[in-house]
Amino acid sequence: MTTADQYVSEKEHQIDDLKHAHPELEDDVEVDDIKEVEERIDFIVPQTDDPSTPAFTFRSVLLGTLWVVLLSFANTALSFRTAAFSVGANIALILSYPMGLFLAAVLPKSIPVLNPGPFSLKEHVCIYIMASCGGVPYGIDNVVAQIMPTLMGNTDISFMQSLGFVLVTQFLGYGLSGLTRRFLVRPTAMWWPSTMSTIALFTSFHKVESGEVVGNRYKMSRFQFFWIAFIGMGIWSWMPSFIAPVLQAVALSCLIGGRGSGE
């Protein structure tokens, strides 16, 4: 049995288990909704897997550690600004691809530990997962509020106590996410639409075949569409930010509704 057949068989068993546990859903809309979710997922997520593809390698650990340090430092520092903003993990997703290709080209191929072969999709995903942890720690605001003289003023708190508080709160969150995986991630009905665009970007970078419809009228690949949209948004962002900032104050909905003319 191939990996794809195993995947289909597992999904069928999940539907059967759902019907057995909830007989009232036998002919109800919920079962149809789950099947519709499966179709959407199958259209984007690749249905094949190569277990021999390297994932946790020197390259993924190196780039993942680099990005999690950079993003954690940047986002923590930027969070103290009056107009705070953050740098998302999608930056690491995009930039780590050419970095991974560069390491695959320059690292010695004679040492499999350093260079197991071409930069793989699984390595890229590992880097993104690590980079996704590069946000502002939950407990850092509490530590700052406790130490600052203008707030709590508890200057007797040591560095190790502050570090321990931040680590404990972070590990508690990861532990809770692991406990709830069975209910919030594993079931077919609990799909997260926001991850579909990320998966589509991964498959476009690495040219992985998915369940695309044969004979689609759109001949442009996802990779080509991404770069066109990326360049177009980058060029247009100069217009409201620097060339014509007044465009930021234009309320199109009010103008369309006839309220922009003073009526």
Report what the structure shows.
GO terms for molecular function: oligopeptide transmembrane transporter activity. One of its GO terms (cellular component) is membrane. Pfam families: OPT. With 263 residues, the protein is an all-alpha fold. Helix content is 60%, strand content 0%. It contains 12 helices and no strands. Helix 3 packs antiparallel against helix 4 (89-106) and helix 3 (58-78) packs parallel to helix 5 (121-132). The protein is globular and about 60 Å long. The model is unreliable at 25-29 and 211-215 (pLDDT under 50).
Write a concise synopsis of the structure shown.
The protein has 263 residues and is mainly alpha-helical.
Essential attributes:
263 residues; mainly alpha
SSE topology sketch:
Blueprint: H1 3-21, H2 29-44, H3 58-78, H4 89-106, H5 121-132, H6 140-147, H7 159-179, H8 181-184, H9 194-206, H10 222-236, H11 238-243, H12 252-256
**Biggest beta sheet attributes:** none
Please tell me the overall pLDDT.
77
Distance from first to last alpha carbon = 69 Å
Uncertain parts = 25-29, 211-215
- The rough form would be described as globular
User: Roughly how much helix do the residues carry, as a percent range?
Assistant: 55-70%
What pattern of helices and strands is seen along the backbone?
A: HHHHHHHHHHHH
Determine Rg (CA atoms, Å).
24 Å
Q: Helix- and strand-based class?
A: mainly alpha
Q: Please, how many helices?
A: 12
| Tally of DSSP β-strands | 0
Proportion of beta-strand residues = under 5%
